[in-house]
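To whoever is on call:

I kicked off a structure prediction for a single chain this morning and the downstream step that reads the tokens threw a length-mismatch warning. I double-checked the sequence; it's 293 residues and nothing unusual in it as far as I can see. Pasting both halves so you can look.
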Amino acid sequence: MPDVRSTFTGLALASVLGLPGAALGAPIVMNSPTTSWTPVIYTAGGPDYPNDQDTGQGEADIVGNLAHPAFYTAFDDAGTSALTDGMLGFRIRLGEDQNPAGFGKVAAVGIDANLDGALDVYVMVRNTGGPSRNAIFNAGPPANVSPSTVNITSTGPTYVQTTSNYDWSPVTITIDPSATIFDVDGDGHVDRFLSFAVPFQDLVNRLSAVGITGVDQNTPFQYVIGTSTNANTLNQDISGPNGGTSSSSTWAVLGATTLRYSAAGTQVPEPGTAFLMGLGLFGLGLRRRATRR
């Protein structure tokens, strides 16, 4: 069994240092190993509870633990000096591939770009209710500060899914080299990785359209991820809490928010880089002491 203490501190330290992660300027390969992606850490620690999706559909169940993250990002800055070009990618671990084959739900990454606790836009895979597409949709009124106030509009660009911006792959030792299990939720089905990407400039433009200007690849974001049967709500699963898809509690209270990350994949330390590095050293010390016993 993986050492949870050393796993958490290792992930935290790797995130602070920007490791692992896709090299800036390198195209995002949708089915590339997780070593090319940045694992995203949650403020509450563990990334998700197993088998907590509201509809009982494993394909919509976000799964993960400290050793097997539920959520990753990747960034390609196009190899230029510009700070708003390139592609921003996301990877979500889900419980299974149900019949018929292929992801047939909605998976959304809500982005709080001004860190006020409200989600400003949603980057999503919309594979139900019309042609399958990646999309960047606006957050509608009233608030988007909790599951019960989510309102996703259909305003924003959509993208035809190709091998360069979309992938649905089983979790194997090839795509997840550090994995010790491939069925995190223990439901008898191999987990899947849903990977997708959108042009970063388009995301910057959507944020500017709702009054959030000056965003670039170094701007800190907080994320909330969820799944749904439609492109307007998050009614199946939210990563972090146990259930809670209709809760009026804020994202932070529920434990659904990630730590702060720039689009380029660098964790913005909170409360401080020194603190998190200290955690890493503390974890290494614990492991060494355990080894000596």
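Update from on-call: the warning came from a stale cache, not from the record. Cleared it. Sanity check on the structure: The longest strand covers residues 220-228.
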